[in-house]
Amino acid sequence: MPSDEILKQDRNTCHGKLFHAAPLVFHYSMRQCCIKDPKAIVCIVLASLGLASVIIFFTIGTVIYVQTNPKVVNYAISTCLVNSSSVKTYECATRNSRYTCYGGLWEAHHGDNYTVFATVEEDNRYRDYANALTRSQEFKNGSTYSCWYDTRNPSVAQWEQPSVIAAIALLSAGGASVLITGVFTFLSVKFVKNEIQKKRREEAENFQSAAVAYTN
C-alpha cells in the first residue's frame, strides 16, 4: 500500500496520538530543510558566479561600446605634425576614492599642408606625473605621426585607432557566461529538486514510523 494512503488512514484513526507525534516530525523536517548535496551546492555557487560575470561583462562591455563606437564611425585617419607636448591634470576616481591623475597632451596640425589645428589626448591616465611626462615625450616636436581625428570636430584627435574589439570581446564573454549560467542553473534546479523529493520520502517514512509508534 502506498505511503500516502497509509498516512491518510493513520490521520483518520489516530487523531489525538498523531497530534502529539507532529512536533517530533516537524523537528525532523526542520533539520532536513538545508541543501546538503555537494553537487547541488557546487552548481548553485557556479550559477551565482556566472550571473555575476554576466552582469560585469555586459555592463563594462556596453559602456565601452557606447563610448568607442561613435569614434569608429566618425574618426578618420590623418598625419599629425606635433607642435608641442605637455602633461594635463585630471581627476580620476575609483570605487572608493578620487585622486589626481595625469595624461599626455599634444598640440598638432593635420590635414592638407598641416593647416588644421588639433589637440591630441589619450584615454590613458597615470597616477605618477613622471610617467605621464615620459609618455608625452614619446611624440617628438616637429615630427609627424599617424593620428585619427573627429570628422565632426577636426580639432579633436587621438593617436590610437578607434576600435570596438575590446567591447565586443567583453560582450561575447557575457554571452558565454549566460550559457554557462543557464547550464549550472538547470543542474542546480535538478539536483535540488531530487534532494527535496528524497527528503519528502524520508519525512513520510519517519512520519509513518512516528504514527505507528504512538498508536502502539
Q: Look at the helices and sheets and give the structural class.
A: alpha+beta
Low-confidence runs (pLDDT<50, min 5 residues)?
Answer: 5-32
Number of helices: 5
Note the gap between the termini: 20 Å
Work out the radius of gyration.
34 Å
Strand order of the largest sheet: 1-2-3-5-4
Strand content: 15-25%
- Bin the helical content: 55-70%
What spatial form do the alpha-carbon principal axes imply? Answer: elongated
Mean pLDDT: 84
Number of beta-strand segments: 5
Largest sheet: 5 strands, mixed, barrel
Series of H and E elements:
HHHEEEHEEH
Polypeptide structure, described:
The protein has 216 residues and is an alpha+beta fold. The protein is built from five helices and five strands. Strand 4 and strand 5 form a beta hairpin. Helix 3 packs antiparallel against helix 5. The chain is elongated. 16% of the residues are buried. Mean pLDDT is 84; it is low at 5-32.
Task: Name the descriptors.
five-stranded mixed beta barrel; 5 strands; alpha+beta; 216 residues
Structure summarized in a few sentences:
The chain is an alpha+beta fold and 216 residues long. Helices cover 57% and strands 24% of the residues.
Topology:
Layout: H1 3-13, H2 15-31, H3 38-74, E1 75-93, E2 98-110, E3 116-121, H4 129-136, E4 144-150, E5 153-158, H5 165-215
Parallel strand pairs: 3-5
Antiparallel strand pairs: 1-2, 1-4, 2-3, 4-5
Helix pairs in contact: 1-5, 2-5, 3-5
